[in-house]
Design brief:
four-stranded mixed β-sheet, about 325 residues, Glutaredoxin, 14 helices, globular, alpha+beta
C-alpha cells in the first residue's frame, strides 16, 4: 500500500463521492475502487462495519465513515486547508457538513426511491454496478430485487406519505436559497471548497444523477448545477470569505433549513433514543414530522457539540447561532 490510498466506495454512495472529491482537491494519490471490484478478503481485513466508503491508508490502516476519514486525512495533509480562518465561518462550515450528511440525505434518499422513474433508474444502475456481466434477464431480475428492497427502506430517513410533502417543499426552498448564495461565489465559503461543501455537495451530486431532481437542478438552479460539476474536481481558486460577506445569503439557509428543520428534528431524535421510543413526532414549522429514531445521528450530534465546545471565543458565533435557532441544541 506504499503507493497511496485506496478508496473503496460506489458512485451512487454520497459519502463515497464526498471522500473522493476531498482526495481530488488535496491532490492526494489514491485509487478509486468500486466496492464490487474490491476483493471480499481485502474489505473484511480493513472494515469494521459493513459500510462504504472504506479508506485503506498507505500504512495499511482502514478508516470508515466519511467525516472521520476527512478529519484523519486533514491532519496529515493540512494544506490547502478546508477550514475557514474566520472562527464563525469555520464552525458554520462544520454545521453545514453535518446538515448535509444527515438532513440532506433525507432529500436524496426520498427522491431516489419515491417515484417510478427514479426507482427504475437507480435500481438499474445499482444492479449493473454490482453485476456488470449479468445477462439482460439476470439484470432485470436483480434490478427488481434492488428496487423492492430500497423502496421498502425509505422509512429509515423518515420518508413516508405523510412526510413526503415536507421533504420536497424543504428541498425546493433549499435549492432556491443555495442557488442565490452560489450566484456570487464558486464554493459555499468563497473561492475554495470548505468542509461544508463536501458534506452538502455529495447529496446534491447524487440527486443530480437522478431523473426528477436532476431536472430540477439542471432546469432551475444554474449556480447549483455549476457547483455540482465544479466539486467533482474542486480547486483552490482563492481565499475564504469573512462571515460578514457570507451572511446575507448564507444566513437564510441557517435560519430556514438548519435552525428551522434540522435542529428541532435532531433534538427530538436524540430525546426519542434516550427514552427508547420506537417512533417520535416533532413540529417543524407548521407541519408534524413522524419517523423512527436514527441511532447513528445521536453520535454525530455529539461530535458536532464537541466541535462547538472547542471554540475558544464563542461570543460572535453564539450571536449567529442564536439568531438562526441553533444555539440551544448545541449547548445541550
Amino acid at each position: 500500500m506504499a503507493d497511496g490510498y485506496r478508496i473503496i466506495g460506489a458512485e451512487m454512495s454520497p459519502y463515497s463521492v464526498k471522500v473522493r472529491s476531498y482526495f481530488r482537491y488535496k491532490g492526494i494519490p489514491h485509487q478509486w475502487v468500486l466496492r464490487n471490484a474490491a476483493s471480499q478478503a481485502e474489505y473484511e481485513k480493513y472494515a469494521r462495519m459493513p459500510i462504504i466508503p472504506l479508506v485503506v491508508t498507505p500504512d495499511g490502516t482502514g478508516i470508515q465513515d466519511s467525516t472521520p476519514i476527512i478529519d484523519a486525512v486533514e491532519k496529515l495533509h493540512p494544506e490547502p486547508s478546508i477550514h475557514p480562518g474566520d472562527p464563525v465561518a469555520n464552525f458554520i462550515s462544520a454545521l453545514i457538513e453535518e446538515f448535509g450528511d444527515e438532513w440532506g440525505n433525507k432529500w436524496m434518499f426520498h427522491y431516489r426511491w419515491a417515484r417510478d422513474v427514479d426507482q427504475i433508474s437507480a435500481a438499474g444502475r445499482i444492479a449493473r454496478m454490482r453485476s456488470p456481466n449479468a445477462t439482460e434477464q439476470e439484470h432485470a431480475a436483480f434490478a427488481a430485487q434492488v428496487r423492492a428492497r430500497m423502496v421498502d427502506r425509505v422509512w429509515f430517513v423518515g420518508s413516508s406519505a405523510a412526510t413526503a410533502p415536507q421533504i420536497e417543499a424543504g428541498f425546493h426552498e433549499m435549492l432556491g436559497l443555495l442557488n442565490d448564495h452560489l450566484a456570487k461565489r464558486p464554493y459555499l465559503f468563497g473561492a475554495r471548497p470548505a468542509y461544508g461543501d463536501f458534506g452538502l455537495w455529495s447529496q446534491f451530486y447524487e440527486m443530480w444523477t437522478d431523473p426528477t431532481v436532476g431536472a430540477l437542478i439542471g432546469g432551475g438552479a444554474p449556480h447549483v448545477l455549476d457547483w455540482v460539476h465544479r466539486m467533482l474536481w474542486p480547486r483552490d481558486e482563492g481565499v475564504f470569505e469573512s462571515w460578514t460577506a457570507l451572511a446575507p445569503t448564507l444566513m437564510p439557509i441557517l435560519t430556514n433549513q438548519i435552525g428551522g428543520q434540522f435542529m428541532p428534528w435532531t433534538l427530538a431524535n436524540e430525546k426519542a433514543l434516550a427514552e427508547k421510543q420506537e417512533e417520535f413526532s416533532v413540529k417543524l414549522g407548521d407541519k408534524v414530522w413522524i419517523q423512527k429514531p436514527q441511532k447513528y445521528h445521536a453520535r454525530s450530534l455529539g461530535m458536532l457539540r464537541a466541535r462547538y465546545a472547542d471554540v475558544a471565543d464563542k461570543a460572535a458565533l453564539d450571536s449567529v447561532l442564536a439568531a438562526a435557532g441553533c444555539l440551544a441544541g448545541l449547548r445541550a
